[in-house]
Write a structure and sequence with these properties.
With 292 residues, the chain is α+β, with helices and mostly antiparallel strands. It is built from 10 helices and 9 strands. The protein is 57% helix and 19% strand. The chain has a 5-stranded antiparallel beta sheet with strand order 4-3-2-1-5, with helices on both faces. Strands 6-7-9-8 form a 4-stranded antiparallel beta sheet, covered by helices on one side. The chain is elongated and about 85 Å long.
Length: 292
């Protein structure tokens, strides 16, 4: 039995309910933005849940609300239902794939809002996860929209690590070290004083996260010793900005020398704003070495 008495009533109620849900979503979103105790991640999850409930509610009202569907002859109704179902399956298969992928990404996925990730070769900060897409802000200031299906099926690197139950400094080092940093003693060369400051901050935060961003640059052999000294001084300069001195290591010898850099910081926006500047200054060192 249909929820509403006639099709016109069903249409009016669906429009009204849809408008109410839309306004309610805007009010709650606005409230959360002004309530500073709610984190961006929590805000995005609540908005996602509201959007999902609204979507399911409207779909249910459309399917169950129109009484005219009950008046169709059962034989024709079966044929019509089959045709509509087939059409909807083709038309909305991508929509529902994105919806399911979005639910998985939001609640059990490999990243969260604010994390630094690489998706389909694009590096940046996750700004939003909606019902249909993931929005990424790249290091050159662009906003890229990637469908949740593509995000879920593509290769992904997450440079953000959640630090939980860190009881001492040595345990903190083990959690943040990368595969390339194989010993804690090597990691301490970053700058033990600054790393201890990071540890104290993480110890006093309920769910601390640390961003471990890596990138590579090619250096020519010419003037490499002098050049690597300049790189070291530049890393010392940037330790105040990132919170710890960037770590670097030679990872490959070939036509050129490949050096891998690792940045540790508690603020993803710092990487978004200052990593390009750091990389640019490194590039200036490379160019200067080539000229001389």
């Amino acid at each position: 039995m249909a929820i509403f008495s006639n099709d016109l009533e069903a249409l009016i109620y669906i429009i009204i309910i849809g408008f109410i849900l839309f306004v309610l979503n805007k009010i709650i979103t606005s409230f959360m933005k002004h309530f500073k105790k709610i984190s961006i991640k929590t805000e995005n999850k609540i908005s996602f849940i509201i959007s999902l409930i609204s979507f399911v509610t409207i779909i249910y009202l459309i399917i169950e609300g129109f009484p005219s569907f009950e008046k169709i002859d059962p034989t024709y109704a079966a044929i019509l239902t089959g045709a509509i179902s087939t059409a909807l399956a083709f038309a909305s298969s991508g929509i529902f794939k994105n919806l399911i992928s979005g639910i998985v990404l939001m609640f059990v996925g490999p990243f969260d809002v604010g994390d630094i990730v690489k998706i389909k070769g694009n590096k940046g900060i996750v700004r939003s996860i909606t019902l249909s897409k993931t929005i990424l802000e790249t290091f050159d200031g662009k906003f890229i929209e990637i469908s949740n299906t593509e995000t879920f099926s593509s290769s992904l690197v997450n440079y953000t690590q959640k630090i939980r139950k860190v009881r001492n400094f040595e345990q903190f080092l083990r959690k943040i070290q990368s595969p390339q940093v194989k010993a804690m003693a090597q990691l301490k060369t970053l700058d033990e004083t600054y790393l201890k400051k990071m540890f104290e901050v993480c110890k006093n935060i309920r769910n601390p996260i640390i961003h471990r961003y890596t990138f590579r640059m090619e250096f020519p052999y010419e003037g490499f010793k002098r050049k690597i000294r300049e790189v070291h001084n530049l890393c010392v300069k940037y330790r105040e900005i990132f919170g710890a001195r960037p770590w670097y290591d030679i990872v490959n010898f070939g036509v050129k020398i490949h050096i891998k850099f690792m940045i540790l910081t508690l603020d993803s926006n710092t990487i978004l704003e200052d990593q390009p500047k750091f990389a640019h200054e490194l590039y200036q060192i490379i160019l200067k070495s080539v000229v001389k």
